[in-house]
Design goal:
By secondary structure, the chain is of the alpha/beta class. 45% of the residues lie in helices and 15% in strands. It folds into two domains: 159 residues, Aspartate Aminotransferase, domain 1 (Alpha-Beta Complex); 224 residues, Aspartate Aminotransferase, domain 2, CATH 3.40.640.10. The strands form four sheets. A seven-stranded mixed beta sheet has the order 2-10-9-8-7-3-4, sandwiched between helices. Strands 11-12-15-14 form a four-stranded antiparallel beta sheet, with helices on one face.
């Protein structure tokens, strides 16, 4: 057990949390190891607790706006950890990154326009395209021995063939755990610039660097005229319940389009607690995050060691970023029995691989993604929990699949 776990691990059962207390509704049982929804079983940095207690002691909760200290804490954090500079005037707020994606799509495209993702990908991206009346199209990532890379030829061909207007990028990539290299990002961005495609980059996992170094899109390529970046402290410091995310829009023309589209939503972008907690986290959370990353790396190592020792042919994608391990169980179990084995026998609540591909009913511009989803036997394991739960889950998988 790491020192971080000793200090910050918290048994969240009975607290009303979706991850543990929502399993009976989502999976039909509460007697499971919760390794699905992407949040942590850790208390936040002490500076956040102190700031929230101070706010509660004031006991005044009127209208508020972000303080200069809030802006400076975020700007300093991004510069020091990710080497790019944000101007305060570029920042807009949304209750969550997914909400920001919906708004960016609405502001920058028209109903019927094609929206491109790299597949497999975080499933709300697909919903965002379809719920806004856009046409979802996919470019399949290339996979070799569990390692995923963009298929640049297919990416560009898809843009041309499907008349793509907007590309939703996941960086680091969820679910495959890639931290895209600078040259990979630059090539994707160059193609988008060449064909007049807007880019919306979801970088919510940007601080969760397990083995790689995250590069923001604005540090990878001069894309400010056609791209926006979404991020938050929520994944970094386990603050998702406070509903506070940011969309960074350097270009004035894009900002005006975004502001005009969002004008009816004014007043529901963020809240006092979000401003206070995020400022405190960015100001004083460095040591906490360093300890958290050490713990996550330890859990990733344990998972790989146990699974590889017991199931030599299991596919384990190298975890570069996020705390979400992408595991291919196809050598041991078919899609028809996957859920029975993992859910019923192993008693683990996971996100299923097929969720990250478009369904047959979806209007995908590339049927390969839908076909791949039908056969997919991946599971996504959330490693942001105790070492004991990680060991138990891996051991249960080995025991069940050996049979």
């Amino acid at each position: 057990m790491t020192e971080f776990e000793k200090k910050y691990y918290w048994d969240r059962r009975g607290s009303g949390c979706a991850k543990w207390d929502g399993m009976e509704h989502g999976f039909g049982s509460k007697d499971l190891i919760a390794m699905w929804v992407a949040d942590m079983d850790f208390r936040g940095p002490d500076t956040v607790r102190e700031a929230m207690l101070k706010l509660a002691e004031q006991n005044t909760y009127g209208y508020t706006f972000p303080s200069p200290a809030y802006y400076q804490s975020f700007i300093n954090w991004e510069k020091e950890r990710h080497d790019y500079t944000v101007q305060p005037g570029w920042i807009r707020y949304t209750p969550g990154v997914v909400c920001g994606i919906y708004r960016a799509i609405g502001a920058l495209t028209q109903p019927g326009d094609s929206c491109l993702i790299l597949s497999p990908c975080y499933y709300p991206f697909m919903s965002a395209a379809e719920d806004t009346g856009r046409r979802l199209v996919c470019s399949m990532l290339k996979e070799e021995n569990g390692y995923y890379t963009p298929d640049y030829a297919d990416f560009e061909d898809t843009i041309i063939r499907e008349k793509v207007k907007i590309f939703i990028l996941c960086s680091p990539h969820n679910p495959v755990g890639r931290i895209w290299k600078k040259e990979e990002l630059a090539k994707l961005l160059q193609i988008c610039e060449k064909h007049g495609v807007y880019v919306v980059s979801d970088e919510i996992h940007h601080d969760l660097e397990i083995t790689g170094k995250h590069v923001p899109i604005f540090a990878a390529y001069p894309c400010e005229k056609f791209a926006v970046l979404l991020t938050a402290a929520s994944k970094t410091f386990n603050l998702a319940g406070l509903s506070h995310s940011m969309i960074i829009i350097p270009d004035e023309t894009i900002r005006k389009k975004y502001d005009a589209y969002c004008k009816p939503f004014t007043g529901i972008n963020s809240n006092m607690t979000g401003y206070v907690a995020v400022e405190a986290a960015y100001r004083g959370g460095r040591e906490w995050l360093d300890g958290c990353l050490e713990h996550l790396r330890n859990n990733a190592r344990i998972t790989e060691e146990i699974l590889k020792a017991g199931l030599p042919d299991v596919g384990i994608t190298p975890l570069e970023g996020t705390y979400l391990q992408w595991v291919d169980l196809a050598p041991y179990v078919g899609r028809d029995r996957l859920e029975e084995v993992v859910l019923k026998q192993c008693k683990i609540a996971v996100d299923w691989g097929h969720q990250f591909f478009p369904k047959e009913s979806r209007s995908s511009g590339d049927v390969r993604a839908a076909e791949a989803g039908k056969k997919d036997c991946h599971i996504r394991l959330n490693l942001a929990t105790s070492e004991a739960y990680v060991r138990l889950a891996a051991e249960r998988l080995v025991e069940a699949l050996k049979r």
